[in-house]
């Protein structure tokens, strides 16, 4: 039995949706970041010593990081077609997009909500936050351009890139950025919400995205 450790509203929503898409039996285990549960002694010792979500417990051990978990799910449940595993170029394009989300969008957002990690005094933190907000909106606009003309992020096939991309639309909305002005991204969000697996996860995580 698989166990997914996630925190509602965190980037773990990507793996949460993908796992639901597979149809596999699993135990969803919330780890509430606002309550510091990701830093508990038990979680650090027995799940993820880095103190982050998501983490996926398998019969072979624990896998961490969205990109790795999404890759594992795609390989373990090929019938879900989460990644084009038989198309090397298509697969690497997906990996590239997921790495871009992980390595560029996520740390930019982190500077908005955790500027104290970058600067010590309040004035510097405010400058970091404002600069990051501008950068993050620019990145969301870039994603909007990537989706332009596509049903899904990578084209006509739904992939693991899609739930991961949805995370950042939700984050942009959460901090009051004008994400609804991003027409391609917003229509993509609407298509995502129509998927049963997505709706189930949004409901479980009590995500504002489920309100449309």
What does the model show?
It is a single chain. This protein has helices spanning 13-22, 41-46, 66-76, 88-113, 122-147, 161-174, 183-193, 196-204; strands at residues 2-6, 26-30, 55-58, 61-64. The protein has 212 residues and is α+β, with helices and mostly antiparallel strands. The protein folds into 2 domains: 2-80, Glutaredoxin, CATH 3.40.30.10; 88-195, Glutathione S-transferase Yfyf (Class Pi), Chain A, domain 2 (Up-down Bundle). The chain has a 4-stranded mixed beta sheet, with helices on one face. The longest helix is centred in the middle third of the chain and has 26 residues, at 88-113.
In a nutshell, what does this entry contain?
The chain has 212 residues and is α+β, with helices and mostly antiparallel strands. The protein contains eight helices and four strands. Helix 1 (13-22) links the parallel strand 1 (2-6) and strand 2.
């Amino acid at each position: 039995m698989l166990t997914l450790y996630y925190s509602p509203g965190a980037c773990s929503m990507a793996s949460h949706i993908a796992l639901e898409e597979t149809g596999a039996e699993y135990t969803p285990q919330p780890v509430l970041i606002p309550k510091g549960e990701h830093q508990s002694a038990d979680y650090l010792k027995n799940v993820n010593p880095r103190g982050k979500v998501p983490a996926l417990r398998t019969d072979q051990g624990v896998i961490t990081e969205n990109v790795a978990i999404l890759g594992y799910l795609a390989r373990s449940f090929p019938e879900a077609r989460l990644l084009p595993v038989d198309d090397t170029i298509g697969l690497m394009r997906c990996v590239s997009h997921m790495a871009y989300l992980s390595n560029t969008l996520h740390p930019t957002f982190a500077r908005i909500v955790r500027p104290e990690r970058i600067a010590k005094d309040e004035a510097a933190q405010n400058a970091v936050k404002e600069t990051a907000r501008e950068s993050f909106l620019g990145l969301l606009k870039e994603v909007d351009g990537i989706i332009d003309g596509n049903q899904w992020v990578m084209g006509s096939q739904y992939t693991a890139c899609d739930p991961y991309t949805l995370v950042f639309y939700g984050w942009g909305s959460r901090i009051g950025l004008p994400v609804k002005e991003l027409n391609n991204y917003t229509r993509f969000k609407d298509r995502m919400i129509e998927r049963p697996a997505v709706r189930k996860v949004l409901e479980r995580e009590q995500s504002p995205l489920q309100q449309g």
